[in-house]
Structures are given as structure tokens and as C-alpha cells.
Amino acid sequence: MNSIISPSLLAADFGNLNKDIQMINESEADWLHLDIMDGVFVPNISFGFPVINSFANKVEKPLDVHLMIVHPEKFISEVKKTGAKIMNVHYEACTHLNRVIHEIREAGMLPAVTINPSTPVCLLRDVIEDVYMVLVMTVNPGFGGQSFIEHSVSKVRELKKLIIETGSKALIEVDGGITAETAPRIKEAGADVLVAGSAVFNAKDPKAAIHLLKSI
Ligand code: DX5
Ligand code: ZN
């Protein structure tokens, strides 16, 4: 089966977002991945709701919002207002993850839980049946253009096993260092959704790069 492709806008040209959004609309991308950072949960700041709301209605693909912030539960209604389909919150940022997952669903979005490279898969056992998706970070979050952490392959394999064992229907998304070179290994391990920033927006032909990732 073809992978679901969610290009990460973090690597786009912020001085000319309309051009990159038009490219996404015309491409085979399935979703658009939006990385929100607060300079606290991760050592970087990206963009926030005023920026997202300035372009969200121009994007013809579902929005896959990845919150790298503390207290993501405070922003459920803001994320909903952007029209997002998926809201990803970090396991490490939620004390009451079960509650947050249910609040995201009640708000009319699909809940996804994200784990950092140092967070083990076994900690997801009690939420795996409640989430639409698990996002496995394949780099330490905060920056685009980092190298893929090879250990992620066995982690995704372990997560796939947990999903099968529990009868969960959760999708597996991977994010960080995903390229045409790393994608086959992680897909073979069980990844369904590939996020790619640099591999798409820094390519000479971004639409061709999306096509290539999709065909992996
Ligand atoms: C990093 C973000 C990623 C980032 C990926 O913290 O979550 O979505 O944009 O960038 P690449 O694909 O360049 O590793
Ligand atoms: Zn991301």
C-alpha cells in the first residue's frame, strides 16, 4: 500500500508561503503537517495560530497539527479553529493524556499521541486503543534537517506489534530525517504516514519528491 505523505511546512519558504501551499495543493501530498513549537518543550520557536489562520483556508489538504508545546490541552479550541483534522500532542507534555485524547475527540478532531526518541513504546499500551494515530519522532523534535535515528526502525516494529496485539486501528506516523533513503526501512517496519520537511521543500522538484516518497 502507498504511504500517506504529510509534508512538513517547517521547511517551506515563509517569505512566499502561497507558492508552497499551491505546490502542496497540486501535489500528491495527502495531508499538510504543521509544527508548532514554544521554545520550552523544544529548544526552538516556529509559528503559531495567527500565522496558521492566515493560510489555513487556502490549503486543500487535511491539516496534521504537531504541537511541540507544554500544556497542549490549553489550545484544543485554537487548533480546532484552524480547521485541523488531526491534533498530535506529545506523551511527555501531558500529565493526563487520557483526558486530553478524549477532549480532542469531543472537539471533533482525531487525536494522535507523539513520542520522543527516548520514550518507550510500552508506555502507550493504555492509550493505544483510543488514538487515531501514534507519531514516532525519528529525530529529537525542534528542528528540521536532522539525521534519522536508526533505532526508530525497531521502535516502529515494536509499536506495530502492540497495535496488532491490542486490535487497535491506530496509524503509525514517523517524523524527522525521512528521505527516499530512510523511508523504505521505516515503512517496512510498519509506518503508514511519512512526514517530510527538507526532503520535500529543499528538493529541486518538490512535487516529484512527494511522488517518490508516496511510491515507496
Ligand atoms: C521537527 C519537526 C518535523 C520537521 C521534520 O521537530 O517535528 O516535522 O519539520 O523535518 P525534516 O523532514 O527535515 O527532518
Ligand atoms: Zn513534526
Main sheet record: 8 strands, parallel
User: What is the radius of gyration?
Assistant: 16 Å
Mean pLDDT: 98
Strand order, main sheet: write it out: 1-8-7-6-5-4-3-2
| Form type | globular
In short:
With 216 residues, this protein is of the alpha/beta class. 31% of the residues lie in helices and 19% in strands.
Explain what the structure shows.
By secondary structure, the protein is an alpha/beta fold. The chain is 31% helix and 19% strand. The chain is built from eight helices and eight strands; from the N terminus they run E-H-E-H-E-H-E-H-E-E-H-E-H-E-H-H. It has an eight-stranded parallel beta sheet. It is globular. The N and C termini lie close together (9 Å). The mean pLDDT is 98. The structure holds D-xylitol-5-phosphate (DX5) and zinc ion. Zinc ion is lined by residues 8, 33, 35, 66, 175, 195.
How is this fold's topology laid out?
Elements: E1 4-7, H1 17-26, E2 32-37, H2 49-55, E3 63-68, H3 76-81, E4 86-90, H4 97-106, E5 110-115, E6 133-137, H5 152-166, E7 171-175, H6 183-189, E8 193-196, H7 198-201, H8 206-214
Parallel strand pairs: 1-8, 2-3, 3-4, 4-5, 5-6, 6-7, 7-8
List keywords for this structure.
8-stranded parallel β-sheet; 8 strands; binds zinc ion; alpha/beta; binds D-xylitol-5-phosphate
